[in-house]
Design a protein that fits this description.
44% of the residues lie in helices and 17% in strands. By secondary structure, the chain is of the alpha/beta class.
């Protein structure tokens, strides 16, 4: 094989002495081409080392070696990084490049989903923590581009999810087992409609476990705010400054739990002797902080998403299904 870098479809047509449309048919519909002509064109393709670009050609030639990852702007960087690390391990082994698109508005999400599938620059998409409408999901599915969602279960695409309700239950049950009361909750306020809002399920699971244990969650011990370390520090401070401060606090994310730890230490509170704290995510930094937390397998979700997408690319007719990851409570120094 000569392997002339940069050979084009025009070079193939000229060398094989056929039209460009004939070369195109050889690539896309070989069964519709005269066998002798097909053999001649394929020989020239091999001779020139021509590689079809984009999604041109039969399935084995279509891959461009890139996948796109769409994520919400509101995802904390550490959790997103861990998911991407998990995906990267799989994609690296399959020699696939990862392109990350950050979404910060509904219009931008719609623009991406309406254009990217037809640019022929990616082999598939992973959508992380994004809520898409049914018409958009249907249109995306009809485009033929393989898609996998993370944290969003939809009948149109394979999905990787974690049981947020169960995670909240684990935190509440642990506090009940230790006899901690009163208990507090530090969560997230409203987020954009296009971004997922796991706060509600985590809070419901937490409240359910506390109620079952006879403790309950007083509304006065609930604080919701921006997904931000400094704001979480302020809100936790409000809870710790109450006439009767909470004996235990569950934060819907590790990042918010870090803010609570800082607020407690600023007030001279001992952890866990004066206040026990549990987070959610099990970030890599949680071990350094000695934070007890609910693990949802961030790296694992990224790995499974990439594996599922690779399988979908290899077989577009593969059945759609959901993988629900187990959540577990990781005990460390804050409880």
């Amino acid at each position: 094989m000569t392997n002339r870098q940069g050979s084009t479809i025009y070079d193939v047509a000229k060398t094989a002495e056929v039209s460009i449309s004939t070369v195109s048919r050889c690539l896309n519909s070989p069964s519709k081409v005269n066998p002798e002509t097909l053999e001649r064109v394929q020989a020239v393709i091999h001779q020139l080392g021509y590689i079809p670009h984009g999604n041109t050609g039969p399935k084995r030639h279509r891959h461009v070696g890139r996948i796109g990852v769409f994520s919400s702007y509101f995802i904390p960087a550490p959790s997103m990084t861990q998911r991407l690390q998990g995906a990267a391990q799989v994609l690296h082994s399959s020699h696939t490049e990862m392109i990350v698109y950050t979404v910060d508005s509904p219009d931008q999400l719609e623009e991406y989903l309406n254009s990217v599938p037809f640019t022929k620059r990616v082999d598939g998409l992973i959508l992380i923590s994004l809520r898409i409408t049914e018409p958009t999901a249907k249109r995306l599915a009809e485009s033929g581009l393989p898609v996998v969602t993370v944290e969003y279960d939809t009948p149109f695409f394979p999905s990787i999810t974690a049981d947020n309700f169960r995670g909240g239950e684990l935190a509440g049950s642990h506090f009940v087992s230790r006899g901690y009361a009163p208990c507090a909750y530090l969560g997230q306020s409203e987020v954009p409609l296009y971004s997922l809002h796991p706060n509600d399920e985590r809070q419901r699971g937490y409240e359910s476990a506390l109620a079952s244990g006879g403790t309950g969650l007083d509304p006065g011990y609930i604080r919701l705010g921006e997904f931000d370390y400094q704001r979480s520090r302020e809100l936790a401070g409000e809870l710790f400054d109450l006439p009767v401060p909470p004996r235990a606090l569950f934060a819907m994310s590790d990042l918010q739990a870090y803010g609570a730890i800082k607020a407690a230490r600023e007030r001279g509170m001992r952890i866990p002797e004066d206040v026990a704290i549990i987070g959610f995510d099990d970030l890599e930094s949680a071990e350094y902080m000695e934070l007890s937390t609910v693990s949802q397998g961030l790296s694992e979700s990224g790995r499974l998403a990439a594996e599922s997408l690779n399988a979908r690319i290899a077989d577009p007719h593969r059945a759609v299904g959901n993988i629900s990851l187990d959540v577990s409570l990781v005990h460390r120094g804050t409880t």
